[in-house]
């Protein structure tokens, strides 16, 4: 009885989390200042980016809600949900009509989108991270990005940031203005993002290469898009290291944002497909157990296994 109540409470909590995430996403998109000058978000800069922004964030939230319904993928669902929230953080940061605290909070959570995806991919398909190196990488990503983000929020005065574009006026978390140190932290953040992106590519490629044929086919819908996420995020970080002043009206930056949106959308679809495949496989195994429990006649065991496992 207690376990049943706990499971029910957990489902309700996850539904509430999905509802809050959707509310955060919709409010962020409604707050986007379209057609204003200067342009402060990609969604306001061009229609393709607006569609990509919307689809990527909502796909992560929807896939997270789906994955959270299954006990074995609940952690992956939570990470996808958090990644969707962080994805829309950039829209909040650039929403000039929003309250300063919301814009500041958006800037605070945006860098964690890649960290959540990194954790999700390394924990796939069942939420457990088996490699010691992967565990170290995940902890390091959270610690570095967390420390740099908090320090940057405490020291960065947008009015003194020559390379600002999303938010050049508000920082509700400012404690002491230090433009020089804030600039150094920006560089550290970009190098950290580059390292996480390369780590995502390296770990993902290693898992694909080291897997058996069936295992590779099972992981490809999730790991394949993860490699694209790593590549697009690495390109984004390298571009910002070379050109610190981000401009969504420039073709290069706009193309990178669309590529990032597509890769995140594909990863969300891959997560949803993985969850549905696992659920279908478990249903087949239950049917197989029932069929075997009926003691098939001699010579039918092979056919029963083939049907139950979906492997002729």
Kindly describe this structure.
The protein has 312 residues and is mainly α. It is 75% helix and 0% strand.
Task: Give a summary of the structure in a few sentences.
The protein has 312 residues and is an all-alpha fold. The protein has twelve helices and no strands.
> Helical residue percent?
over 70%
Return the average pLDDT rounded to an integer.
85
**Quaternary organisation:** single chain
Total DSSP helices = 12
Largest sheet: none
Order of helices and strands: HHHHHHHHHHHH
Beta percentage is under 5%
Please report the distance between the alpha carbons of the first and last residues: 41 Å
The low-confidence parts are none
The radius of gyration over CA amounts to: 22 Å
Envelope shape: elongated
Total number of beta strands: 0
Coarse structural class? mainly alpha
Strand and helix layout:
Layout: H1 2-31, H2 42-45, H3 47-67, H4 74-87, H5 89-94, H6 100-109, H7 112-123, H8 132-155, H9 179-210, H10 213-242, H11 251-293, H12 301-309
Essential attributes:
312 residues; mainly alpha; 12 helices; 0% strand
């Amino acid at each position: 009885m207690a376990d049943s109540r706990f499971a029910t409470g957990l489902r309700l909590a996850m539904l509430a989390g999905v509802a809050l995430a959707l509310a955060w996403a919709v409010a962020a998109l409604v707050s986007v200042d379209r057609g204003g000058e200067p342009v402060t978000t990609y969604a306001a800069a061009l229609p393709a980016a607006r569609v990509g922004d919307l689809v990527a964030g909502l796909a992560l939230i929807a896939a997270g809600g789906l994955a959270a319904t299954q006990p074995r993928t609940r952690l992956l669902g939570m990470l996808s949900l958090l990644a969707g929230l962080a994805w829309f953080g950039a829209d909040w940061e650039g929403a000039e009509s929003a309250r300063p605290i919301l814009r500041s909070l958006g800037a605070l959570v945006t860098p964690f989108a890649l960290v959540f995806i990194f954790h999700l991919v390394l924990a796939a398909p069942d939420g457990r991270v088996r490699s010691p190196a992967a565990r170290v990488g995940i902890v390091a990503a959270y610690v570095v990005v967390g420390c740099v983000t908090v320090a940057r929020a405490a020291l960065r005065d947008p009015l003194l940031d020559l390379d600002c574009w999303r938010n050049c006026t508000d920082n509700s978390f400012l404690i002491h203005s230090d433009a020089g140190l804030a600039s150094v932290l920006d560089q550290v953040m970009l190098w950290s993002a580059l390292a996480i992106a390369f780590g995502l590519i390296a770990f993902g490629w290693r898992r694909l290469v080291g897997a058996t044929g069936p295992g590779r086919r099972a992981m490809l819908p999730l790991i394949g898009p993860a490699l694209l996420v790593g590549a697009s995020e690495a390109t984004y970080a390298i571009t910002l290291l070379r050109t610190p002043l981000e401009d969504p009206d420039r073709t290069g930056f706009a193309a990178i944002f669309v590529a990032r949106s597509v890769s995140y959308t594909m990863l969300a679809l891959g997560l949803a497909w993985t969850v549905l495949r696992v659920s279908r496989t478990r249903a087949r195994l239950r049917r197989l157990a029932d069929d075997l429990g009926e003691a098939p006649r001699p010579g039918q065991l092979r056919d029963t296994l083939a049907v139950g496992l979906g492997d002729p």
